[in-house]
């Protein structure tokens, strides 16, 4: 361990899920190798996730002592978590958040997460499928071009697809299709509750169709993207054909491609996934931050358990244009000096993420102490990090470097070279 125990380097753990990007093409593999040069990258393996936090199944390690971050925290929780965080989240060893890098080659399962009340209820009734009683808010910040599904499409778009795509229309059935068409009121201020009920009806009919019964509709849908592409538009055609190669004739072609917003994020853009809103990641590289929980209700593009009844009965059925699903960053007033700062601050207690950037600028930024623990990862370029006013604490840091920062300490980020970028993301929780 370094002389200074309020700011120190840590090493995260890479995970090889089959949807990850292969070998050194994966940002996860690249960061993991830069973070821990002793690691050998297997070019035939997908590198999907890099975990940074205190989750016991993939420990984050302090490299000098070889101790896990979790055990270091448990040795001195007041210093590393702070008493306010210990009291609020009722743990002396666990961070309230888990921070990750994801490199996505193939679509992940379409899913939603419970809020706190539903999480507690599901855990009580079905602890096997819902392993804890917590909610699981998630936020994704793109570090390369990213695409995902996020929330239901506006109702007029779903109505257009029901009216014009014969496979979707016959799968849902004339009766529900015309109830939806006649009943939706396109001015959302008029009668949102009725609109949501109609949307739920369509979704419920779809999700209660067995996987075997979906197959002929799905294969017909894919053929129609080739025979009548104009019905769909270019980007939806391409998406259906691409995802069908990953999950052939899957229900996700309907509940994902035809019902959910297809959201594109540029580097630095973010989306916050509200509790009980359906979503899935499709491709790209992101920083992801989430509350420490494993509660997932799945809907499509997955071989895992689908809890259709819980899913259909509990979604919010919010429907919004894709731009409204994005989380706009705020300015950050507790930084001064050089560099620019963007704060991604979703409306939950467990985490926020601060982006800091030095683009064509050198100098020092001072960031006031935060009232809780944080983890910082350098995503691009290089610079230095130290405790304010303590030269001896200086650490050189570059792409893939990961650091733990204790609560209440002012730190400095230093960019020494105008030509070299220095970009980092810092996840934190404040009481
Ligand atoms: Zn999720």
Automatic annotation (TrEMBL):
<dbReference type="Pfam" id="PF01238">
    <property type="entry name" value="PMI_typeI_C"/>
</dbReference>
<dbReference type="GO" id="GO:0005975">
    <property type="term" value="P:carbohydrate metabolic process"/>
</dbReference>
<dbReference type="InterPro" id="IPR014710">
    <property type="entry name" value="RmlC-like_jellyroll"/>
</dbReference>
<dbReference type="InterPro" id="IPR001250">
    <property type="entry name" value="Man6P_Isoase-1"/>
</dbReference>
<keyword id="KW-0413">Isomerase</keyword>
<feature type="active site">
    <location>
        <position position="298"/>
    </location>
</feature>
<dbReference type="InterPro" id="IPR016305">
    <property type="entry name" value="Mannose-6-P_Isomerase"/>
</dbReference>
<comment type="similarity">
    <text>Belongs to the mannose-6-phosphate isomerase type 1 family.</text>
</comment>
<keyword id="KW-0862">Zinc</keyword>
<dbReference type="GO" id="GO:0005829">
    <property type="term" value="C:cytosol"/>
</dbReference>
<dbReference type="InterPro" id="IPR046456">
    <property type="entry name" value="PMI_typeI_C"/>
</dbReference>
<comment type="pathway">
    <text>Nucleotide-sugar biosynthesis; GDP-alpha-D-mannose biosynthesis; alpha-D-mannose 1-phosphate from D-fructose 6-phosphate: step 1/2.</text>
</comment>
<feature type="binding site">
    <location>
        <position position="279"/>
    </location>
    <ligand>
        <name>Zn(2+)</name>
    </ligand>
</feature>
<feature type="binding site">
    <location>
        <position position="111"/>
    </location>
    <ligand>
        <name>Zn(2+)</name>
    </ligand>
</feature>
<comment type="function">
    <text>Involved in the synthesis of the GDP-mannose and dolichol-phosphate-mannose required for a number of critical mannosyl transfer reactions.</text>
</comment>
<dbReference type="GO" id="GO:0004476">
    <property type="term" value="F:mannose-6-phosphate isomerase activity"/>
</dbReference>
<dbReference type="Pfam" id="PF20511">
    <property type="entry name" value="PMI_typeI_cat"/>
</dbReference>
<feature type="domain" description="Phosphomannose isomerase type I helical insertion">
    <location>
        <begin position="171"/>
        <end position="260"/>
    </location>
</feature>
<dbReference type="Pfam" id="PF20512">
    <property type="entry name" value="PMI_typeI_hel"/>
</dbReference>
<dbReference type="GO" id="GO:0009298">
    <property type="term" value="P:GDP-mannose biosynthetic process"/>
</dbReference>
<feature type="binding site">
    <location>
        <position position="138"/>
    </location>
    <ligand>
        <name>Zn(2+)</name>
    </ligand>
</feature>
<feature type="binding site">
    <location>
        <position position="113"/>
    </location>
    <ligand>
        <name>Zn(2+)</name>
    </ligand>
</feature>
<dbReference type="InterPro" id="IPR046457">
    <property type="entry name" value="PMI_typeI_cat"/>
</dbReference>
<dbReference type="GO" id="GO:0008270">
    <property type="term" value="F:zinc ion binding"/>
</dbReference>
<feature type="domain" description="Phosphomannose isomerase type I catalytic">
    <location>
        <begin position="7"/>
        <end position="155"/>
    </location>
</feature>
<protein>
    <recommendedName>
        <fullName>Mannose-6-phosphate isomerase</fullName>
        <ecNumber>5.3.1.8</ecNumber>
    </recommendedName>
</protein>
<dbReference type="InterPro" id="IPR018050">
    <property type="entry name" value="Pmannose_isomerase-type1_CS"/>
</dbReference>
<dbReference type="InterPro" id="IPR011051">
    <property type="entry name" value="RmlC_Cupin_sf"/>
</dbReference>
<dbReference type="InterPro" id="IPR046458">
    <property type="entry name" value="PMI_typeI_hel"/>
</dbReference>
<keyword id="KW-0479">Metal-binding</keyword>
<feature type="domain" description="Phosphomannose isomerase type I C-terminal">
    <location>
        <begin position="343"/>
        <end position="387"/>
    </location>
</feature>
């Amino acid at each position: 361990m370094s002389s200074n125990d309020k700011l120190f380097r840590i090493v995260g753990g890479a995970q090889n899920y089959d949807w990850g990007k292969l070998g050194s093409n994966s940002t996860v593999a690249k960061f993991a190798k830069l973070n821990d040069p002793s690691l050998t990258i297997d070019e035939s393996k997908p590198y999907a996730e890099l975990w940074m936090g205190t989750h016991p199944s993939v420990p984050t390690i302090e490299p000098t002592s070889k101790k896990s971050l979790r055990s270091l925290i448990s040795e001195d929780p007041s210093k590393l978590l702070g008493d306010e965080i210990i009291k609020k989240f009722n743990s002396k060893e666990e961070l309230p958040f888990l921070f990750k890098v994801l490199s996505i080659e193939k679509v992940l399962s379409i899913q939603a997460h419970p809020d706190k009340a539903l999480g507690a209820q599901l855990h009580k009734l079905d602890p096997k499928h819902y392993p804890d009683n917590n909610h699981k808010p998630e936020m994704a910040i793109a570090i390369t071009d990213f695409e995902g599904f996020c929330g239901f499409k506006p109702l007029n778009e779903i109505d257009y697809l029901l009216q014009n795509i014969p496979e979707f229309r016959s799968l849902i059935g004339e009766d529900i299709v015309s109830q939806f068409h006649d009943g939706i009121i396109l001015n959302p201020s008029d009668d949102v509750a009725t609109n949501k009920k109609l949307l739920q009806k369509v979704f419920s009919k779809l999700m209660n169709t067995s996987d075997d019964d979906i197959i002929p509709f799905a294969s017909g849908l894919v053929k129609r993207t080739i025979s009548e592409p104009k019905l769909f538009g270019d980007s939806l055609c391409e998406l259906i054909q691409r995802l069908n190669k990953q999950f052939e004739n899957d229900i996700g072609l309907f509940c994902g491609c035809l019902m959910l917003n297809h959201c594109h994020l540029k580097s630095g853009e973010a989306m916050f996934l509200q509790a009980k809103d359906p979503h899935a990641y499709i491709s790209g590289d992101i920083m992801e931050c989430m509350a420490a929980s494993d509660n997932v209700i799945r809907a499509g593009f997955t071989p895992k358990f689908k809890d259709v009844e819980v899913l259909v009965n509990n979604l919010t059925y919010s429907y919004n244009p894709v731009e409204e699903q994005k989380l706009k960053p705020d300015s950050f007033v507790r930084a001064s000096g050089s560099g620019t700062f963007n704060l991604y601050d979703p409306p939950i207690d467990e985490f926020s993420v601060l982006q800091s950037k030095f683009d064509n600028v050198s100098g020092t930024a001072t960031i006031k102490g935060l009232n809780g623990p944080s983890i910082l990862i350098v995503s691009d370029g290089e610079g230095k990090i130290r405790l304010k006013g303590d030269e001896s604490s200086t650490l050189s840091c570059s792409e893939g470097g990961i650091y733990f920062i204790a609560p209440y300490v002012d730190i400095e980020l230093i960019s020494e070279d105008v030509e070299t970028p220095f970009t980092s993301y810092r996840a934190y929780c404040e009481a």
